[in-house]
Every structure is written in C-alpha cells, then in structure tokens.
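INTERNAL AUDIT FORM
Audit reference: QA-55
Scope: verify that the stored structure record matches its stored sequence.
Auditor: D.O.
Record contents follow.
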Amino acid sequence: MPVTYVIEFHVKPAERARFLSLLGDVLSAMAHEANYRNAMLHVSPDDPLHFMLYETWASHEDVLNVQLQRPYRNAWHAALPEILEQPREISIWRPFGEAHRDGA
C-alpha cells in the first residue's frame, strides 16, 4: 500500500548549503529505486531554514526494512545531528481511498 512521509526540518543557519547538498544526493539516488513514487522539497516562505519534504513510496515495509538501510543515506543520516536545530518531525500518510477501505 502506498505511503507518504511528511518530514519537517529546521536547519542551522551555517548548515543550509550542506543540508541541501546532502539531501539532494539522497533524493537523486532514491529516485532510481523501484518502490519510489515521488518526492518534493518545500521551503517556508517565512523562514528559509524551515523545510518540508514529502516523499511517497509503494510500501512502508520496504522503506523501513530496505530503503532506510541504503548506503547512499549514510552520510545524510550521520550529518543530521550537526545540521538540524532540532530533530526532524515525521508524519506518515496513506491515500484516503486506501485508508477508507481498511475502515480507518
């Protein structure tokens, strides 16, 4: 079942370029994954250090068990404590039609 992750980032001022570079590398690599559907990075019009990423995948289980372990994510995950003001805020969403059929 498809799943979308909405992730918010609050980036340290001196780390904005590094954040964008590392995330760009991850987004480029994951776009070639079979279960990848789409992703889009947004920036707040009021705060150039507040970003929102949404990414959609075919399977939540695949993301947890396979995608998060991909080597191309290592540098990104290792750098997050250094480049973020606070931990990421992550929420998980399913298409309404899928959720409605499951009785959710």
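Auditor finding: record pair retrieved intact. The two ends are 14 Å apart (CA to CA).
Action required: none
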